[in-house]
Amino acid sequence: MKKISLALLSLTLVLAVSCKKDKTAPETEKTVAETARKVKVKLESKSGSNVTGNAVFTEEDGKIKMTAMLSGLESGTHAIHIHDKADCSSPDGKSTGGHWNPTGAPHGKWGSKEGFHKGDIGNLQADEKGHAMLILTTDEWCIGCGDKNKDILGKGIIVHAGTDDFTTQPTGAAGGRVSCGGIIE
User: Is the pTM value of this prediction over 0.85?
Assistant: First the structure.
């Protein structure tokens, strides 16, 4: 009986040692799942519309990729912006405040040399069935980094009834707010 117990103890010890991580081995690169941050935003109807959808913000290697998918839109062009607050409590979406503009720049087209708000995403095109998708990748934003000029957490995403003309200050004359979602973790 002692020989069997001793053999089992030895086998357990060998297995435990062999399963331990080799601390002399070099560290491997972290996987995407370990380094990426992701925030999913549900967009809800506002202003009596039927516009719903979602937006996903994924941060990896200092860049954010935003993918927005919507349905229930009227066929045509619609503005999409990030606004100051993640508050979608009002029926018209105005509880989100104005466009997110931490640098005090004029309203404009994303990337314009003349300036643009950090929330001036631009326009998306809805097809005849009311579906639209937009993908934007930028290093102008971050998720939870604490930099007031880049951090999108606590902001709102708004889809407008009309088109952003990229010139009218400070809104782009984009019309009513037809969908809203808060960018929160």
Answer: no
Residue 51 maps to a domain? yes
Would the pLDDT of 28 be above 60? no
Q: Is residue 143 part of a domain?
A: yes
83 is in which domain, residue-wise?
37-183
Whether the Cβ atoms of residue 141 and residue 121 lie closer than 8 Å to each other: no
CA 132, CA 135: separation in Å to the nearest integer?
10
Question: Residue 43: which CATH number?
Answer: 2.60.40.200
Determine, yes or no, domain membership for 142: yes
Percent of the chain with pLDDT over 90: 75
Question: Is 16 part of a structural domain of the chain?
Answer: no
Rg over alpha carbons for the chain, rounded to the nearest Å, is: 24
Cα 145 to its chain centre, rounded Å, is: 13
**90-114, pLDDT tens digit by residue?**
999 999 999 999 999 999 998 888 8
